[in-house]
Amino acid sequence: MQVWEEMVDQEGIWNGELKEGAIMQVYDSEEEFNTVVEGNNSGAYGHSFIFLSYEYDADGNITGMNIVDQGYLNNSTVTQERFGVWFGANITVSKTRDEVIPISLPSNGIQSVI
After folding, report:
1. H helix runs in 1-114, sequence order
2. Going by C-beta distance under 8 Å and a sequence separation of 6 or more, which residues neighbour residue 84?
3. 25-38: buried (b, 16+ CB within 10 Å) or exposed (e) per residue?
4. pTM of the predicted protein model
5. If residue 70 lies in a helix (H) or strand (E), which one and from where to where?
6. pLDDT, tens digit, for every residue of 39-92?
C-alpha cells in the first residue's frame, strides 16, 4: 500500500471537497503566506490541523469545519473568515492510484491518521 495526497485549493475546500483526515495548512493573510514563502524572518507563520467534518446551515450551505488540533483551535468550529489562505490535502492509501481508499479517523478523532 502507498499513501497518496490529493491537493485541495481554497475554493475546493469551501465547496466541500475535503475528506475526513485531510491535512490542512492555513495562514492569516496572503501577506503572511508570502512572507513565509520568501523565508523572511519577520515572525510570520502558518498553522496546521486535521479536518474532521463540515458544519452546515439549515439550507445545506457549509458554514465551517470541525478539526483536530494540538489545542490552539480545538473544540471550536473554524470558519472560512478565520484565515485568509487555505490549503488542504486529502490523504488516501491504495496499491495503485486507481484504487484510492479514503483514510478514516477513529471515532474520537485524536489518534494518528495513518
Report:
1. 10-14, 30-37
2. 27, 28, 29, 30, 32, 33
3. ebbeeeebbebeee
4. 0.76
5. none
6. 877 778 888 999 999 999 999 999 999 998 887 787 778 999 999 999 999 987
86 forms beta bridges with 26
Which three cell numbers mark 16? 466541500
| 2-43 tens-digit pLDDT | 767 789 999 999 999 999 999 999 999 999 888 888 887 777
DSSP 48-66: EEEEEEEEE-TTS-EEEEE
Amino acid of residue 95: K
Question: How far apart (Å, rounded) are the C-alpha atoms in residues 14 and 82?
Answer: 13
> What Rg value do the Cα atoms of the chain yield, rounded?
15
Core vs surface per residue 58-77: b (16+ CB within 10 A) or e: eeeebebbbbbeeeeeeeee
